[in-house]
Amino acid sequence: MVLSHGFGLNMDIWHYQRAFLRGRYRLVFWDLRGHGRSSTGPSDHYTLGQCGADLAAVVATCAPEGPLVIVGHSMGGMTVMEFADQQPDTIRERVVGGAFVATSSGQMASVDWIGLLGLGRVVHKLGPGVLTALSRAPSYVDRTRRMVSSDLETRLVRHYSYASPVPSSLVRFTAAMIASTPIDVLAAFLPGFDLHDKGTALKAFADVPVLVLNGDGDLLTPLEHSEAIAAALPEAEHVLLPRAGHMLMLEHPDVVNLHLAEPARPRARRDAPPGPSAAPRSPSPCPLGRGLLAGGRSPYDDRRGVGRAWCPRAPRCTIWARAWPRCCAPVTWCC
């Protein structure tokens, strides 16, 4: 199972899924270029198409043969669609299950993130330029962020990430991931979301059991986006979680875990709401003990046995990936 995270995040977003799915699948997590532990590259390479090529390189290195289950959240789901567009035969021949979690196949320019008389569309137009300008003065940005109340920052993260009461530690954990992503990386990727249009690429999944998962309180990829994916894949199972925002896997991990446990089983239902047993619950205690959400050391930081391969062409960009159980080459590179 190869899991791809979303915009401004990193592989730690799959914290609960790693704990739950370990032993059920051989798991491969990776950081998108410029995110998490992956290195940065030239700004013109920060595209969804390049992320699709990076995913192909991760698959070729960490899972070169055998059946695949592919999971993508938000921008990670868009990356999976780019991968399918570039290598449709790989999807048809090797993928036995897929999951699109809180993501979109297109029409992102129509999302009004702010919801005030179309002001969100202004953000679509001006946001990348503003972030690019800010990226030229990182010390000023850091100083300003220290001056701004951390409470304001966490309030914004809570508003756009979650739709139900969650522990403050979970909000801080999410905010820390976003804050760790370089602002120039965020700025370079932003314009690509409005251009993203991969509805036709979904045809590669026509004969693949697919799960489409979305929260009814998702402000970043609203319900109509998961409905569009489900419409393109009539045999997919479309699950709408009540009182759930964009960070489904952290907000309601038990529900997401159960759906991801067997994504390769035949799908017969569409727009199926979760049953009583799938009611939203607080995150289960992490079996890893003192872990990410307790402020401990991330289990992903264990790099023993992890190798890196450098791209022979400049500029160099290293994509970090981690596989459980360990394989001979769990990390791959890509330009």
Automatic annotation (TrEMBL):
UniProt xrefs under InterPro entries: AB_hydrolase_1, AB_hydrolase_fold, AB_hydrolase_sf
Residues in AB hydrolase-1 domain copies: 1-253
Pfam families: Abhydrolase_1 (PF00561)
Region (Disordered): 264-288
Tree of life domain: Bacteria
Biased composition (Pro residues): 273-286
Protein name (record): AB hydrolase-1 domain-containing protein
Organism listed in the record: Angustibacter aerolatus
